[in-house]
Design a protein that fits this description.
Layout lengths: L8 H7 L8 E3 L9 E8 L7 E6 L2 H4 L1 E4 L4 E4 L12 E2 L7 E2 L1 E11 L8 E11 L6 E9 L6 E7 L3 E8 L7 E11 L12 E4 L24 E3 L2 E5 L8 E6 L7 E10 L6 E8 L11 E9 L5 E8 L10 E7 L9 E10 L6 E11 L16 H13 L23 H13 L4
Parallel strand pairs: 1-9
Antiparallel strand pairs: 2-3, 2-8, 4-5, 5-14, 6-7, 8-13, 9-12, 9-14, 10-11, 10-13, 15-18, 16-17, 17-24, 18-23, 19-22, 19-24, 20-21, 20-23
Length: 436
């Protein structure tokens, strides 16, 4: 049983630590964190080094291997299984020479602008790096202009021990921030990779609480915990990211623009922010066609269930690569006034009567602990309005009490109680008044 202790304002001020909202720190999380893969192909430097093409690849095709059981990511030199002289000279096989310079990029990204106009720091630990002189492994942060027309970069060659790199990202709508690893060097026939070497990086488990029920869609009952609409199906698929099942969608063919999908509702209140993710798959057997698209939405609903507004993360289009899982992520702004719940929604939008299907897996949403958590009403300042909300929660005490506001937002340290520890945080923010 947890018991309160009397706490004075003076002692709260003496022990409180100042909050800081300066910058964003990202780490090397494990395979569950929503990594993506891209390959840039160049001519060899001896042939001028010109750019040939770039495209999304599967993570395994980069030759990047996660072992979550040992908290390790291993980066190998890229190996193409195609013996064509385009890739190898005189042709692919043991002892052949790579004929293309490969830039294998393993990355995570922020598409919603939450990492723009701030300092992004990427930290981690390199366990080993035995790459020979022909190949280089780096950690990087890249800040792309809209449309990937240009980018700023901070990077470091991997060396055993801790690394930390930072980049001051630019302001502006549509900018995309990526961070991760690249391995650059000629492609190597699979039997010849051992002498080239590899790099190992320690990973950290993603310690988060998924607010969704059955986010992997794998429970025996179809769409258990979800509300499906129109053409949504929950079936076993050989390519399921978390076996055995996926959520499959295709258009409703209603003669007008319409959507199929699923949704799930979670408690929320004004000022709450959420991070939502999903994995999308465009099957080559029935690829998305024409103007069809998919999206992940977080909808703000009032206590009657009516829509107040929503935020969206674009998913797949007819141009999306097939037969590979593609991660999408959305960090919302504060929920608007009147919000009673947040609805996590996956949709397949069909503007015209065009075919194709899409699959989704590993749906996830979490409530974020904000840099200014004591701003309980979301007005960017901690004042008497927030004091009333906090005092009410403090008197209720237990987050499981039905009287506690949805989501228990005054429980700043997430221990399921609004107690003296949370009081310290609130008093410090109250004296600062304006959110940082």
């Amino acid at each position: 049983m947890k018991v309160r202790r009397a706490y004075t304002l003076a002692s709260a001020l003496a022990f409180a630590a100042a909050l800081s909202a300066q910058g964003v720190v990202v780490k090397v999380n494990d395979s569950t964190a929503g990594w993506n893969a891209f390959m840039n192909v160049f001519e060899l430097p001896s042939n001028g080094g010109g750019y040939v093409f770039g495209s999304p690849w599967a993570i395994s095709d980069l030759r990047a291997v996660f072992d979550d059981s040992t908290n390790k990511l291993t980066l190998f030199p890229n190996s193409i299984g195609d013996a064509n002289p385009f890739w190898y000279l005189p042709a692919g096989g043991p002892g052949s020479t790579g004929n293309k310079q490969m830039d294998a990029v393993l990355y995570r990204e922020s598409l919603d602008g939450s990492m723009s106009d701030t300092t992004v720091t990427f930290t981690g630990t390199v366990l080993s790096n035995s790459f020979a002189g022909s190949h280089t492994a780096r950690a990087f942060i890249r800040d792309f202009a809209p449309g990937f027309t240009s980018f700023n970069e901070s990077s470091v060659v991997l060396a055993p021990g801790a690394f930390s790199i930072s980049l001051d990202t630019q302001p502006g709508a549509g900018r995309i921030v990526q961070w991760g690893f690249s391995v650059t060097g000629p492609c190597v026939w699979i039997t010849d990779i051992a002498p080239i070497g590899f790099a190992e990086v320690r990973t950290e488990a993603v310690v988060t609480t998924n607010l969704l029920t059955n986010g992997s869609f794998d429970r025996p009952a179809a769409f258990d915990g979800w509300v499906p609409f129109n053409n949504a199906f929950n079936e076993a698929q050989p390519f399921a990211r978390s076996a055995p099942k996926t959520a499959k969608f295709f258009g409703p063919f209603l003669g007008v623009e319409a959507a199929s999908g699923v949704y799930q509702q979670i408690p929320a209140q004004p000022g709450n922010r959420f991070r939502a993710t999903v994995q999308w798959y465009n099957p080559s057997a029935e690829p998305i066609a024409g103007s069809n698209t998919t999206a992940m939405n977080v909808e703000w609903r009032d206590e009657n269930g009516d829509l107040i507004g929503f935020e969206t993360s674009p998913g797949l289009t007819a141009l999306s690569p097939t037969n590979t899982w593609i991660a999408r992520e959305l960090t919302t702004g504060p929920a608007p006034e009147g919000t009673f719940s947040a609805r996590y929604t996956l949709v397949f939008v069909q503007p015209n009567a065009e075919g194709g299907a899409a699959h989704a897996d590993d749906a996830f949403i979490e409530r974020l602990i904000l840099p200014c958590p004591a701003d309980l009403n979301g007005d960017n300042q901690v004042d008497n309005g927030d004091f009333v909300l906090f005092a009410n929660a403090y008197n209720i005490f237990d987050c499981t009490d039905p009287a506690m506001p949805a989501g228990c937002p005054s429980d700043f340290n997430a221990d399921q109680f609004v107690d003296n520890v949370d009081f310290v945080t609130f008093v410090t923010a109250y004296n600062e008044f304006l959110c940082p």
